[in-house]
Design a protein that fits this description.
The chain is mainly α. The chain has one domain. About 55% of the residues lie in helices and about 5% in strands. A two-stranded antiparallel ribbon has the order 1-2. The longest helix has 18 residues. The chain is extended. About 5% of the residues are buried.
Length: about 120
Amino acid sequence: MAQTIKLSDDELLNAAKDQKDHYSRSLNGQIEHWARIGRFVEESGIFDLHKVNLAFQGKIPVEDLTGEEEHAHARMLWNHLENLGGHDERIARRLEKAGAPAYELDDQGKVQKVKTGRRR
């Protein structure tokens, strides 16, 4: 049964638009093809998305990931940071509670330790 989905990742959508003609696929066909590949990779045991998520949550060391898993972890982290959009007091407090310092850039672009309890 066909269903409509919304893609919020413009980069993925644009890449699919670029690739679809190379393989004589429709846009939907290209995205379905990539989804099948992703499903295969997850189920193959070559790439463990569960491990990547555990590392992303800080529950296992990044060093326990394979090269491909490290790459996925880095992309997830980068995407999360891009969407964060500035100082987030909740994240700084969670890091502090976990015993890890949090850092930010000050107005001059210098790295400084986040002091929880203050708002920017």
